[in-house]
Amino acid sequence: MTSVLLVDDEALVRTGLRLILETADDITVVGDADDGRAALDAVVRHRPDVVLMDLRMPVLDGVAATSALREREHSPAVIVLTTFNTDEDVFRALAAGANGFLLKDTPPTELLRAVRLAAAGDAILSPSVTRQVITRFTGDDGSRRRDAAARLENLTGREREVLIEIGRGAANADIASSLHMSEATVKSHVTHLFEKLAATNRVQLAIAAFRAGLVD
């Protein structure tokens, strides 16, 4: 059972998210909060697997709350919620350690899938907007690309292949299928990528792939 904490300053949004999530047999909503400060306290009380975090809230916004959670040991996965995929706060939240983001008009089936993926350690970056997100982080500087490519020199061939798939927004199960390996083997490669690239989440791995020019 995946436990979820809802964080949004609008009660109507929290109610709507709860109704969608509670249609799933494997997901439970353990609590909610209406600002970032209350969210930090609620995480201590409820210990959720996943936090759905609004970006713009009073007292403490979603970016600051995400950053504070990431500084804690055994922090939950964080998916930030936004109205626009070009929102500057989206990029700040990803840099702060969010596992990904969803638009607030995301279809219910995609919301459920995103929560499951986040709980499993996958990044939530839609392939259609991944390039836009990464470009904002990296730019197109040639020397930066060469430096990024040099960081990958100690990767094995399989690790490089897995990194490319992560850059394309693929989940572990999809990578296992496309590269003809078990999901356990994929997870092992991802763990090695975290260690070798000093990354803390899959978003950072995706950024590394794009910076090095492995993904168009």
From TrEMBL:
User: Which Gene Ontology molecular-function terms are recorded?
Assistant: DNA binding
Which residue ranges does the record assign to the Response regulatory domain?
Answer: 3-119
Provide a GO biological process annotation: regulation of DNA-templated transcription
Protein origin, superkingdom: Bacteria
HTH luxR-type domain location is 148-213
Please list the residues that carry the modification 4-aspartylphosphate: D54
Print the keywords alphabetically.
DNA-binding, Phosphoprotein, Transcription, Transcription regulation
PROSITE patterns in UniProt: HTH_LUXR_1 (PS00622), HTH_LUXR_2 (PS50043), RESPONSE_REGULATORY (PS50110)
| Classification via Gene3D superfamilies | 3.40.50.2300
What InterPro entries does UniProt report for this protein, alphabetically?
CheY-like_superfamily, NreC/VraR/RcsB-like_REC, Sig_transdc_resp-reg_C-effctor, Sig_transdc_resp-reg_receiver, Tscrpt_reg_LuxR_C, WalR-like
Could you list the residue ranges that cross the membrane?
none
Instruction: State the protein's name.
Output: Response regulator transcription factor
